[in-house]
Write a structure and sequence with these properties.
With 168 residues, the protein is an alpha/beta fold. It is built from six helices and five strands; from the N terminus they run βαβαβαβαβαα. It has a five-stranded parallel beta sheet with strand order 3-2-1-4-5, with helices on both faces. α2 links the parallel β2 and β3 (69-74). Residues 7-9, 36, 77-78, 106, 109-110 line the site of 4'-phosphopantetheine.
Length: 168
C-alpha cells in the first residue's frame, strides 16, 4: 500500500487543495491529510476544527476517494508525521513559479531529515492557480463571495460566522 502525507495549514481548505488531493488519490492508495497546529493560536481544538472542516469537505467533494483519505492533526515535523503514518511520500501543490522556491527548499530539507521520504508535486488546476487560504479568509471577512473558491460546507462555515469562522 502506497501512502502519502499531504501536510498543510488548510486554513481553510480551498478547492485548490481539494484538486491536489484528488490528484494525489489517483496515484497513492492512501492519503493522510496532516493539519499543522498553528503555534500562534490558542492550543487545543483549533486544528481539530480545521480537520473536521476538511473531513466534511472531502465527503462532499471527493466521495469516491473519501474512504482512502484520512485527516490527522500534527504539531511537529512533517517527516515525523510521515513516519507515524507509514508514508514515504509528501504531497504538495504548486500553483505558480512563485511557490517553487520555498517548496524546493522544504523538499530538500525534508529529504535531508528523512532520506527515505520524497516530495511529490502536483500542479494545481489552472482555475485555482490564483487561490490562497489567506485571501479567501480576507474576502469572506469583508462579506465577499467565496463560493467558487471553497467546498460548499467551508463556504457555509465562513458565511455563518460573518467575519470568518474561528474554527476554520
Ligand atoms: O499550507 P502551508 O502553510 O503552506 O504548509 C506548510 C507546512 C505545514 C507544509 C510546513 O510549514 C511544515 O512542514 N511544517 C511542519 C514543521 C516542519 O516539518 N518544518 C520543516 C519543513 S522543511
Amino acid at each position: 500500500m502506497r501512502t502519502a502525507v499531504y501536510p498543510g495549514s488548510f486554513d481553510p481548505i480551498t478547492l485548490g487543495h481539494v484538486d491536489v488531493l484528488r490528484r494525489a488519490a489517483g496515484v497513492f492508495d492512501r492519503v493522510v491529510v496532516a493539519v499543522l497546529v498553528n503555534p500562534r493560536k490558542a492550543p487545543g481544538g483549533e486544528a481539530e476544527g480545521r480537520a473536521s472542516a476538511i473531513r466534511e469537505a472531502i465527503a462532499e467533494t471527493l466521495p469516491d476517494v473519501a474512504g482512502r483519505v484520512e485527516v490527522t492533526v500534527f504539531d511537529g515535523l512533517t517527516v515525523d508525521a510521515c513516519r507515524a503514518a507509514g508514508a514515504h511520500h509528501i504531497v504538495r501543490g504548486l500553483r505558480a513559479v512563485s511557490d517553487f522556491e520555498a517548496e524546493l527548499q522544504m523538499a530538500h530539507m525534508n529529504h535531508r531529515l528523512a532520506p527515505e521520504i520524497d516530495t511529490v508535486f502536483f500542479m494545481t488546476a489552472l482555475e485555482y492557480g490564483y487561490l490562497s487560504s489567506s485571501l479567501v479568509k480576507e474576502i469572506a471577512r469583508f462579506g465577499g463571495d467565496v463560493s467558487a473558491m471553497v467546498p460548499p460546507s467551508v463556504g457555509a462555515r465562513l458565511r455563518a460566522s460573518g467575519r470568518g469562522d474561528p474554527r476554520l
